[in-house]
Amino acid sequence: MSSTDMEMTREDEILDELKKIRQLLEPKSTAPSPVPEGIWQEFIDFIGKAGVLGLAVGFIMGTYIGKVVQALVNDIIMPIPGALISGGD
Fold this sequence. Notes:
The chain is mostly helical. It has one domain (3-84). It has four helices and no strands. It has helices spanning 3-25, 38-50, 52-77, 79-84. The longest helix has 26 residues, at 52-77. The protein is rod-shaped and about 120 Å long. The N and C termini lie far apart (115 Å).
């Protein structure tokens, strides 16, 4: 093998290595996320990702359970001591 053939082989090896490095460094294309169908679906997706739905449900349940407990105390429990104590309402 002559020296020019060896130089060409070495250059080819370097070029091949550089091509491999370039392929590794190129950004990979990612598939875009699916587009929601309509504004309502987009809102539902946002709520699901943000975790706000659980907070909203908890707030609503807390409000209504508080109203039920208040009604139970005012209408069922408190009239009993009120009837037993003189001057009670």
